[in-house]
């Protein structure tokens, strides 16, 4: 197989060149179709039940993606200038195409419900036009602060900030709308501080920063690798094939991803930067060996045959193990992580294939002249700064085996302790650097308001009264004293209700209409009796008009408020109490629920007599069978959201929900928790899966269980060490940290494979312990170190990326590579020297 | 003499002449009489179906009693809710004035509460529907300036603009009046950006006791996509409704005899 491949590569060089060129071009042609995806919701499968519920709730309660504009005045926003600016901006925002005008919320377009004089009630715009004097502004302050739905949502409790909620139809328009708003604010000549934030804006910025990352970090990684290779080999034509393989791999993989219709998500935007260093590793091995073995006068193709015969199997195995590490990410239930794993994994195999075909073809095509010039320029291995350092390391590793292992065991223990301290937490807003304008807006607005992070508690009545209604109708239809015509009509109605082609309220209308058609006294009496039964059932089905249900919601809200975890909550219960207060005395003593369901219904009928009747449907469905409690949180940290979920769980445990009622969560803050939980569990599966597969491969490769286990030990310590460190320093375990585990496994086992492979070969040749050990710290140790350096350095450009997850990945992968190489080079010789009697029985 | 000649000359040149404006106002006045003052009194049973942009429906049923104090002038009106059952016996009382703000009261049986609704904005939703309070009692024609845009054999098309633009949400509206019945059959409202955002249509007109009467109408919210349809049944004019039933007492004790539709 290997020979056939080599023969093809060496004898059909032009085919190889043209083939690679055409293949690359075909995939590059796919790149312009790129589609960026920045929606954190996509961390969950499209058919994830919690995601589906979230979106259903969003539709049901008419929730939109919303841009939040905040205005802050250090003294008070209640002055004519600030309020005029707010009115002006509100007017402007309602006119922007793509804004959901009906649901836009600002002090300038909400209603005030007041008692104009004793015994009267008044609905009027809170601030149709801005007040002209300070007294007018103070009046607005007094009114706004009296309405619980506004306080700390539209205006801050400290009077220093106001917010404008701009719901948009399509979040892809968020950038354009935010830009228009910003431009208009600039024309207001306002002295106040204005902030624009909100999830759609954040997502949009995120997409932009992703492009920046791909446009800067990936080419920078290419340049870094190129410079490193030049330092190693000092000859541009010689390192060219490695660079060509890396570039082609990246472009083909990205082309395939885009061409197959996958969107580019935060994870897949890192594919280029992952593939680049990994793709050159095999080439580095070939080039190193080739430079070592090639003697002037020799045929380049002969040398390459020798080199490949030697390297093919270890290269295949290291590529396969790395691939397994990445493919294991497909075991996580997070689609973007799966896509990332699948494409990096396949990319590594592609890089291997390209390397074993293209590099031999290229090298065998070099003329004798350029080859000998190249070999002259090569830096002498003895001059390398690595050489003495590695020799010292080798001596240290071999001499104090027991001490080293004791040290490693201690480190492992500390790491396990550290892992137990790991804090699982994430917050997509924190993916921006802390000085980013969105982070600043986030901080400022959450200081003043009850919170810009939303979670929704959705309560649903599960009791369906329709079968009782059907029974009531059917009973009348049985009555033989009633005419056949009327009975048949009744049967039709019952059937329509049974097959859900009609609703109870619609049935009530039909029965009412029918009652005017009937002339027979007896029939009319029967029908009217049925009508009152149906009415009773209909009223009974409107659970969220029931004062006891509303009171349960209030008590739950109170409990949440007292916990301090929730900034504020808004519910139907608050709406009812507010209107009831204004219908009665207007005093806080009347901020209570009416005593009957009819009282609640009539209170709400009044609420609907405002300028914004549709606002009611954000809190309850028109059939009054589902209701939403809107929680405002000042922190979007998953940890805090998890705390709130637990709080509600405990409360419901101690205070059971009203009968036939269920409670569900929705809202972005909650969805983040869902995908994080799935990710933590999924990552463990992925890590275990990768570990087992790699272990099996090692056993097969070395045809020895002992060596197989030996190969897994350095990376086990490395991974434990890294995660232990995360626990010790208190860095949150978030998405980028989570994905590192299994791919680290795939990458760092390479060092062990090379070390053990070469150790066994050297031992077989020399049969002398000391010689083998010192030889291992010559060329093999140098090759391992170089690879570690190439990969580690290849990731460092991520440090200049604009988003925190990229930086995290860069820092950790670079340190993982360094630690992993070091641990391999020290731990394996110590272990081998201790276990020599078992390992080398023969 | 000279002064008058100059006045005539000038008015002849001007496009929106006072004579035209007067003609437009006459048309509007006549339409108002037809739509809101048929007979000396009247009763009808109304059913409102409110549909939101998700197709979810809400229903309201109520009986309206009306009595004119002066034809084209002050009017008494009472609205008695019968459906849904949880708002049954809620009553809304209006005394309409043409020279001052209307007086409005409300009775909520579930709270055992009679409230006066303070004079103020009447362009708020009527019980959650897409109709405004003002649409039910009739917008005072004195609040707007009118001009005749066009006319054909069947219709007049007039434009209305509020005399006080700050008091309303529209910048202008166009009303189409049927020449035969003199009923407004369509009104289209435009906002400050010139977008049409609201439309009222008379979907069905019937002749009842010699009075052309809208028996089915619809308001559409063109921006959000919701709409309300209102149907009127059991319409009767000139029942001889006594003056004393239009009183505060009737809020808590509805005049059952006058509300019974089954006779």
UniProtKB/TrEMBL annotation, chain A:
Pfam families: MMPL. The keyword Cell membrane applies. InterPro entries: Acrflvin-R, MMPL_dom, Mycobact_MmpL, SSD. It is a multi-pass membrane protein. Its main location: membrane. The keyword Glycosyltransferase does not apply. GO terms for cellular component: plasma membrane. It comes from the Bacteria. The chain crosses the membrane at residues 210-231, 238-260, 266-287, 307-331, 337-363, 403-422, 679-702, 709-729, 735-756, 788-807, 813-835. Keywords: Cell membrane, Membrane, Transmembrane, Transmembrane helix. GO terms for molecular function: transmembrane transporter activity. Residues 240-365 form the SSD domain. It is found in: Cell membrane. This is SSD domain-containing protein. It comes from Bowmanella pacifica.
Automatic annotation (TrEMBL), chain B:
Keywords: Signal. Residues 1-21 form the signal peptide. The keyword Translocase does not apply. Residues 74-252 form the Uncharacterized protein TP-0789 domain. InterPro entries: TP_0789-like (IPR033399). Pfam families: LolA_like. The keyword Signal applies. This is Membrane protein. It comes from Bowmanella pacifica. The lineage of its organism: Bacteria, Pseudomonadati, Pseudomonadota, Gammaproteobacteria, Alteromonadales.
